[in-house]
Amino acid sequence: MTVDYFSDYIGRQTVAYTLVASAAGLLFDFCITFDSEVRWTWGRKWGFTRIVFVISRYLPLVSVGITVYYAVESTNGRMSNYGLAVVFYIYEYIHFFGAFAAEVLLALRTYVFWECDKRFLIVISVFSMVTLVLPA
């Protein structure tokens, strides 16, 4: 049985390039919206919504950095499998907390859009808990 290492290397390289391109897109978005962020959020008092916003805004940048590092190191083969596993484990937690913060921020925005209706808050909270529990 022969193994085609060349196609495996090309596949890894394609994934690495795709991850780096995605990182460039995120950084571009961050750069073009930074002035609006400064205008609308900086200088305001800290509250629950602002904390969730900061987490959902800046944690993906950390996640992208880890993703690019993981892609480059796994492609070059300079890191052990254990090291890659540790990086991937850390990435999973950061990705989860960033996605969770983004979901909470979306729910808060929708709640305000519905004119802070308590019924909507109950429905969205129950729905969120059900979707968290069901996959487990």
Describe the model.
By secondary structure, the chain is mainly α. Helix content is 84%, strand content 0%. The protein is built from four helices and no strands. The protein has helices spanning 5-40, 48-76, 81-113, 118-133. Helix 1 runs antiparallel to helix 2 and helix 2 packs antiparallel against helix 3 (81-113). The radius of gyration is 20 Å and the shape is globular. It starts with a helix and ends with a helix. The relative contact order is 0.08.
Concise description?
84% of the residues lie in helices and 0% in strands. It is an all-alpha fold.
Topology:
Layout: H1 5-40, H2 48-76, H3 81-113, H4 118-133
Principal-axes geometry comes out as globular
Q: Quaternary state, please?
A: single chain
Mean pLDDT over the residues: 82
Please outline the major beta sheet. Answer: none
Report the total helices: 4
What key attributes describe this structure?
single chain; 136 residues; mainly alpha; 4 helices; globular
